[in-house]
Design goal:
This is Protein-arginine kinase. The structure is a single chain. By secondary structure, the protein is an alpha+beta fold. The chain has helices at residues 5-8, 47-58, 64-67, 82-90, 96-99, 136-153, 185-189, 193-201, 234-280, 286-301, 310-319, 322-329, 335-350, and strands at residues 25-34, 72-76, 106-110, 115-119, 125-132, 158-159, 163-164, 176-183, 205-208, 221-226. Strand 4 and strand 5 form a beta hairpin. Helix 9 (234-280) packs across helix 10 and helix 12 (322-329) crosses helix 13 (335-350). The radius of gyration is 21 Å and the shape is globular.
């Protein structure tokens, strides 16, 4: 994979495929946090210690065991410019925290971008696996295999009573964060979303926005993940998330059937208005774009719009982010210029093919 491929293609290869229940579940993700024994956590490490950790962990990228799972490239964060790092954040391949790290930060990235391994983020090692649709168990199986490969090469910080030791106490234990990104417009439209999200938090799960902790749920996209990492096994964490996500999927499907049965003309009007505005607007901020793209995506899933594919909507969700806009147009843009370019880009993608 060339250095700039991740910055040139909005959709990672894994995003171009449909998965189970992909009309509702955009993606499934597993993230595993690990640290090396007898090395200070990244926030306390010296520059020399951070470089030593980076060299030790990036050497695993060349191992035969990891290369059996695909082709991997290593990127040192200090070698990337700010725009490239922002694009990686917008594609969920690195965290904002790692993008701002100047000491020994690195990324090991698979060709398909379904595996991204962050080095010297909040923890020494963060293994992330992404799958399209509702495939949380498949993502866990792959992440576990990669975790075993690293554990064979390095000595993890582990306590018999507490489990894997991490920088943040909320990750101690299994060190696992399992999450599904869900598009839930019908539950929002039928005003059921608050009740369901409240119930989710009562069973040990967290609800966040598109970019995780602290981010707003724009475009009717909600990230559902486990909160508990200590006191439950890995399988219990995965099974609990799987069970709750399955129930949410069924509620969203029922809500979509309800709005079609009770207010088809109104919902069709909303969807077509959003489609028209996206097709002809000259200026559009990111929040409005996210909401109207959500409307059109719902229209596609309900069979009300057939001229646009779900993949185009997925691509626009990424392309219309600030970093990618500047990458696409190859120029630094202020806020108003981004809004103008965002509308231009959407018009281009939705224009009838001749």
């Amino acid at each position: 994979m060339g250095k700039r491929r991740f910055a040139q293609d909005a959709l990672s290869d894994w995003m171009k495929n449909d998965g189970p229940d992909s009309e509702i579940v955009i993606s499934s993700r597993i993230r595993i946090a690990r640290n090396i024994r007898n090395q200070p956590f990244p926030m306390l490490a010296t520059n020399q210690q951070s470089r030593e950790v980076m060299e030790q962990l990036t050497s695993v990228a060349n191992s035969d065991e990891l290369n059996e799972l695909g082709n991997f490239d290593t990127f040192v964060l200090s070698d990337l410019n700010e725009l490239e790092k922002r694009v990686l954040v917008e594609k969920h391949l690195i965290s904002p925290n790692l993008a701002n790290e100047s000491r020994g930060g690195a990324l090991i990235l698979s060709d398909s971008e379904s595996v991204s391994i962050m080095i010297n983020e909040e923890d020494h090692l963060r293994i992330q696996c992404l799958y399209p649709g509702f495939q949380i168990k498949e993502a866990w199986e792959l992440a576990s295999r990669i975790d075993d490969i690293f554990e064979h090469e390095v000595d993890y910080a582990f306590d018999e009573r507490r489990g894997y030791l991490t920088s943040c106490p909320t990750n101690v234990g299994t060190g696992i964060r399992a999450s599904v990104m869900m598009h839930l417009p019908a539950l929002v439209l039928t005003q059921q979303i608050n009740r369901i999200l409240s119930a989710i938090t009562q069973v040990g799960l967290a609800v966040r926005g598109l970019y995780g902790e602290g981010s707003e749920a724009v475009g009717n996209l909600f990230q559902i993940s486990n909160q508990i990492t200590l006191g439950q096994s890995e399988d219990e964490i995965i099974d609990n998330l799987y069970s709750v996500a399955r129930q949410i999927i069924e509620h969203e499907k029922a809500a979509r059937e309800r709005i079609i049965a009770e207010s088809k003309i109104r919902i069709e009007d909303r969807i077509r208005r959003s489609y028209g505005i996206l097709s002809y607007a000259s200026i559009m901020d990111s929040k409005e774009a996210a909401q109207r793209l959500s409307d059109v995506r719902l229209g596609i899933d309900l069979g009300l719009i057939q001229s646009v594919s779900p993949q185009v909507m997925n691509e626009l969700m990424v392309l219309t982010q600030p970093g990618f806009l500047q990458q696409v147009f190859d120029e630094k843009l202020n806020a108003e210029e981004r809004d103008i370019r965002r509308a231009e880009l959407i018009r281009r993608y939705l224009a009838p093919q001749t």
